[in-house]
Task: inverse folding
């Protein structure tokens, strides 16, 4: 692949790559370092990338491999300053609805990274179970299990349940729920 | 998309908030260090012996979306 073309495409994926890094690390500085390592590895191994295939998926795989490799090497996981601040804020009760985004972020940060990863791949990026299983190197059943456990944990943290009427103040969210056949209080 | 069963309303609500969090991160400006890295890419030679070259995935990865 022409290196200038590759650079243009790589640059176009940078923001979503950083967002994926944030979903794994929940830490700005760690996400930046992870993206930097990923870009350097991708750039130096560009000859291994087959033109016409999905560069974003290729970058995502390098990023998650780097993340888990670094994690294995770490003596202990260091919690991020941003997360600590959000955690501190999250102990306050929500004043205008249960699904305040900051509160949701804090709840998300408390999940095991394996669950956050699957929630991001399937819940956000719309990967199929099979695609997520391939990316994560696990069985489809494991993906389903992590997804269900992650959603259930978030529901508990956000005080939601299948029978609990939802407090929704956001019009877009209300529209999504209404379109899916749900009811909103 | 294969194998994606119907989700319950509260699951949809959670996914919607997951998307908001992700989009908020994806819409943020890149930090200076990453902008600098992109500027410097042309000066970085290929095959410089990245420590985890093996972590680069195979090419048969399916289209993710």
Result:
């Amino acid at each position: 692949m022409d290196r200038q073309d590759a650079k243009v495409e790589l640059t176009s994926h940078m923001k979503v790559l950083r967002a994926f890094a944030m979903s794994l690390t929940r830490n700005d500085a760690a996400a930046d370092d992870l993206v930097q390592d990923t870009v350097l590895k991708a750039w130096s191994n560009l000859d291994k990338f087959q033109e016409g295939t999905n560069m974003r998926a290729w970058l995502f795989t390098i990023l998650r491999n780097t993340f888990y490799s670094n994690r294995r090497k770490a003596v202990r996981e260091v919690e991020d300053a941003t997360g600590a601040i959000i955690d501190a804020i999250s102990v306050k009760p929500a004043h205008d609805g249960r699904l305040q985004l900051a509160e949701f972020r804090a709840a998300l940060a408390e999940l095991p990274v394996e669950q956050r990863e699957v929630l991001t791949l399937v819940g956000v990026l719309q990967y199929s179970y099979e695609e997520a299983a391939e990316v994560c190197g696990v069985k489809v059943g494991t993906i389903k299990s992590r997804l269900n456990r992650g959603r259930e944990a978030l529901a508990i943290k956000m005080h939601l349940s299948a029978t609990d009427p939802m407090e929704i103040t956001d019009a877009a969210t209300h529209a999504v729920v209404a379109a899916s056949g749900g009811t909103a209080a | 998309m294969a194998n994606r069963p119907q989700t319950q309303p509260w699951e949809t609500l959670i996914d919607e908030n997951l998307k908001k969090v992700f989009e908020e991160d994806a819409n943020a400006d890149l930090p200076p260090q990453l902008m600098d890295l992109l500027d410097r890419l042309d000066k970085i030679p290929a095959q410089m012996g990245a420590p985890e070259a093996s972590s680069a995935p195979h090419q048969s990865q399916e289209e993710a979306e």
In short: Chain B touches chain A through 52 residues (CB under 8 Å). The two ends of chain B are 8 Å apart (CA to CA). Residues 48-65 of chain B have pLDDT under 50 and may be disordered.
